[in-house]
Amino acid sequence: MRNTGDQGSTTEADQPVDGAGYGPASPSETDGTTREKSLGVDLCLSHPDLILSDAIENSQDVTVRPEQMVDDGASSFLVIAAEGTTLDRFETELEMDETVCDPVVLDWTETDRVYRVEVADSAVRISPSLVRAGGRILDMEGRGGQWNVHAQFRSRSALSQFRSECSERDITFRLDRLYWTTGDANAGACGLTADQQVALETAHKAGYFDVPRGISQAELAEKLDISPSAVSQRIRRGMDQVIGSELGLTEE
Q1: Beta-bridge mates of residue 5
Q2: CB contact set of 162 (below 8 Å; sequence gap of 6+)
Q3: Higher pLDDT, 186 or 200
Q4: Helix H or strand E segment including 19
Q5: Is the pLDDT of residue 180 over 60?
Q6: Inter-residue contact 148 to 44 (CB < 8 Å)
Q7: Which is nearest to 229 in space by CA: 145, 139, 126?
Q8: Is the peptide bond before 212 cis (omega within 30 degrees of 0)?
Q9: Is residue 103 pLDDT above 50, yes or no?
Q10: Average pLDDT in the 93-108 region?
């Protein structure tokens, strides 16, 4: 197991837990008006017992993205997508990672694989406490022994509550970006999130959808200042939203 004590969380750990210091208050927090803004945040979280921490630390070029969590009442199963050039090594590390067991390959290509793993009871989970505090995860990826989380919170105090829970559980918490979003910014064309709309517009203008492509996924990721796997997920989810909206399709 790793020591996370030197990963730069001191500044965040010293911030007050009542929301102070997390940027300007939204109107709904100061004058009681209708809530029109939510808080967008980019977080970096790490702890030796967070799900898959050892596997992603020991496979530095592999990026892992959770796709689905299923609980049947007796066990919790997680479906993950892994992308990288050393996936065989990652599979070996996956077998040895004590936070999961019984890994099964569901799909694979040369550089991408999808796995199902059973989550160990001892594994530390992020999602339940984040949702309980008043947030929701918009995007999440694991790489280099830590989890990068793009999330949305209902208020500064909700974010502060989640940070406090992380502190109580010795989870290293680093706040990389914070911004207020309006309802309009999160409900763009066809119901796209702001990030999805920016990704699709940038991809379209750069020729990503041309045949042949005018820009690679890696180049598009650099232009958007996000990882290639984040580009893939935003475009895939965004296109799904656009198609569903334009064709009048609804989930059954």
Answers
A1: none
A2: 129, 130, 133, 134, 135, 153
A3: 200
A4: none
A5: yes
A6: yes
A7: 139
A8: yes
A9: yes
A10: 94
Other residues' Cβ atoms within 10 Å of the Cβ of residue 138: 19
Closest CA to 194 of 65, 43, 40: 40
d(CA 186, CA 182): 7
**CB proximity list for 58: less than 8 A, separation 6 or greater:** 89, 93
pLDDT tens digit string along 107-156?
987 778 999 999 999 999 999 999 999 999 988 999 999 999 989 999 99
Backbone angles phi, psi at 70, to 5 degrees: -130, 130
Three-state DSSP class for residue 53: helix
**Backbone torsion region of residue 144, taken as left when φ is above 0, otherwise alpha when ψ lies between -120 and 50, otherwise beta:** left
| Residue entry with tokens 């940027």 | 23
Q: Do residues 65 and 150 lie in contact, with contact meaning Cβ atoms separated by under 8 Å?
A: no
As a whole number of angstroms, the distance between CA 158 and CA 41 comes to 12
Give the three-state DSSP class for 102. strand
Residue with tokens 């334009």: 246
Q: What is the CA radius of gyration of the chain?
A: 19
Q: Is the pLDDT of residue 97 over 60?
A: yes
Four-residue CA torsion sign, 143, 21, 129, 186: negative
Residue type, 173: F
Task: Tell me the three state secondary structure of residue 171.
Answer: coil
Report the alpha-carbon distance of residue 145 to residue 91 in Å, rounded. Answer: 15
Share of the chain above pLDDT 70, in %: 79
4 touches 48 (CB < 8 A): yes
Question: How far apart are the C-alpha atoms of 198 and 234, rounded to whole Å?
Answer: 9
Q: Which of 1-5, 89-93, 98-102 has the lowest mean pLDDT?
A: 1-5
